[in-house]
Write a structure and sequence with these properties.
The protein is mainly α. The chain has helices at about 1-20, 20-50, 60-70, 75-85, 90-100, 105-115, 120-135, 140-155, 160-170, 180-190.
């Protein structure tokens, strides 16, 4: 870096002696280009961040409608929910995964899938908690339904559903607590501020 700076100063000195006018013009042009380039790059970066999701296609809406109809949801409800979505095929896939791999009712699954930003993550969260915790516990029907609906609710409320499921499943392997307690603990941890944890280090 130091060598490059020295070489730059040497070339600048020589050019100022041999062609002062051109050097001044070139420097001004370079500075202007750098400023404009910085603005262009900045705008381009902002545009890249702010770009909306890709527009849904005919097939995406068709896929959503077919999935919800297969789940025995009323046609008017199907049309209403699919029409709202920016990525309707994700809504359909979420409902399909939950209804086919758990005993959650289709309308409950639809309501939850439609209220989250990551419906596929929601579905994975619910299915994983059910298959790895609730089913192995062999709960009675009422307790199993309660646990499943709690899983659906906590997975929906969590900003990171996959992490929530990993928290619940990981703790269950070592901590002997009911599924409802584990899900409550993990969702409470999601909401807890990270920068105000108590410390016992003496000042």
């Amino acid at each position: 870096m130091v060598r490059l700076i020295k070489l730059h100063h040497r070339l600048r000195t020589q050019c100022q002696i041999l062609c002062p006018i051109r050097w001044g013009q070139s420097a001004a042009v370079a500075q202007t280009t750098a400023r404009v380039g910085g603005v262009v790059l900045g705008v381009a970066s902002l545009m890249a961040v702010a770009q909306p999701p890709a527009l849904a296609s005919i097939q995406d809406y068709e896929s959503c409608a077919q999935a919800l109809l297969n789940a025995k949801i009323e046609p008017a409800t199907v049309a209403d929910y699919c029409a709202r979505e920016l990525q309707p095929h994700h809504l359909g896939a979420c409902v399909t995964a939950i209804t086919q791999r758990t005993t959650i009712a289709a309308n409950d699954a639809l309501e939850a899938c439609a209220r989250v930003r990551r419906p596929l993550d929601l579905a994975n969260c619910v299915v994983n908690i059910d298959q790895q915790i609730i089913v192995p516990k062999k709960l009675d029907e009422a307790a199993s339904k309660s646990a499943l609906l709690t899983a659906l609710d906590t997975c929906r409320r969590s900003l990171l559903p996959i992490r929530h499921a990993e928290c619940v499943i990981g703790l269950s392997k070592k901590v002997d607590l009911p599924p409802l307690s584990l899900m409550g603990t993990c969702i409470d941890a999601d909401d807890r501020p990270r920068d105000v944890q108590p410390t016992f280090i003496r000042s």
